Amino acid sequence: MELGPTIVAFSLTLLAGLSTGIGSLLSMFQKQDSRRFLSLSLGFSAGVMIYLSFMEILPEALSYLENSYGLVKAPIYNLIAFFGGVLVVALIDRFVPSKDNPHEIPDVLDLATREKNEKALLLKTGILSAIAITIHNIPEGLATFISYMADPKVGISIAIAIAIHNIPEGIAVAVPIYFATGNRKKSILISFLSGLSESVGAVLGIILLSASNTFAMLGFILAATAGVMIYISFDELLPAAQRYGEHHLAIYGVFSGMAVMGISLILLA
Asked: Residue 78 sits in which domain range?
């Protein structure tokens, strides 16, 4: 691997993860009327990921696999790798209790109304959310890193989409801790730290590509990346977008994200 692209890919992955800190900062000044914007943003992020996965990442993965396995076997391996990525994230979800799972984002915008005797519960919620988000961020970091190494324009797009969807996760961590402790610095710090696990995924990507920098390896990982992105979109982003706002607003965000992503890919081609 070349040092320059590796550094850029790692930096993008790290920045995408640290956007949880943006969520924590926003949560300190959260207002009820921000729900519509948050819903639209989450839908937009889902649209970007879905469009990228089906229109760019999977075809590119297939191209890499065809170089190694031919036209007959490559589509089969592409399909297996795609659902392998889905399975990895699904298993992570399976072993994280739903009440502590960041994919089941609570209505954190209303936590300020809780009574003082719930502070211990809020603190536990915030810490468990941070742990769960840390676990979930590792495959996202791998996806961002590998995608950039295979195709920089795709990697940048994925990094932006993940950064957007990490913002409400940062809110989910920071708000309970803040209202439990009254300590802004602690809530923001814990939120930032939970996002650092994206870089663990990047390190894993470096190890995988160093061990076997072949077309086959890139093809399998890209197809799995598409599976991860699709699962995140349908399991996390779209339900959260509807929870924070109106159904149609979330859908408008989805198609806006697809349109912007499609136009961007044409301009960058």
From this structure: 9-27+54-268
Token pair 């676990």: residue: 135
Higher pLDDT, 226 or 167: 226
Residue with tokens 């993940």: 162
Q: Which residues contact 99 (CB under 8 A, 6 or more apart)?
A: none
Q: Are 135 and 15 in contact, with CB atoms under 8 Å apart?
A: no
Type of residue at 251: I
Q: Which of 130, 120, 74, 80 is nearest to 100 (CA)?
A: 130
Number of domains forming the structure of the chain:
1
**Tens-place pLDDT, residues 13-59:** 999 888 888 877 876 665 544 567 667 877 887 888 898 889 988 99
Asked whether residue 171 is assigned to any structural domain, the reply reads yes
70: left (phi over 0), alpha (psi -120 to 50) or beta: left
> Burial of 231 by CB count in 10 Å (0-12 exposed, 13-18 middle, 19+ buried)?
buried
Q: Which 8-state DSSP code applies to residue 110?
A: G
Indicate the range of 32-36, 105-109, 168-172 predicted with least confidence.
105-109
